[in-house]
Amino acid sequence: MGMYDYLIINTDKLPIAKKDKELLGENPKWQTKDFDCILSSAEITDDGLLRFRRFESYWDKNAVSGFSKATGIKGALCEKNHRWEDIPMHGFVNFYTHDKNNEWWEFYAKFTDGKLVEITGGKEERTGNPMVGKN
Question: Which end of the chain is more exposed for a tag (fewer CB within 10 A), N or C?
Fold first, then answer.
């Protein structure tokens, strides 16, 4: 599957019914591969602007991570100087997730001159298992 970034967006901005917003939950973990794919975050603000969470990374030889706890070896890649940078996007951003019923949702946010113009997409239709009946 590879690396990705998270996308933060208010579900009220999505072109879906209230019952679907409830199915997705308050803060779904949207993923996108349209940025740096470093497990950082992008955000479409309520004002329709796009921004990306930037930071500097460094190695802390004394940090304790999950790996450290399992192996006893200290050290971890850490972040500092977090900041949000506006992205003057002109094009599309694709983002996707699954809901509480494991249904797939995918959207495209269209930006013109750095401003959100529209969002299209929704729940993917089930077409059945493509492997059924194949030899």
Answer: C
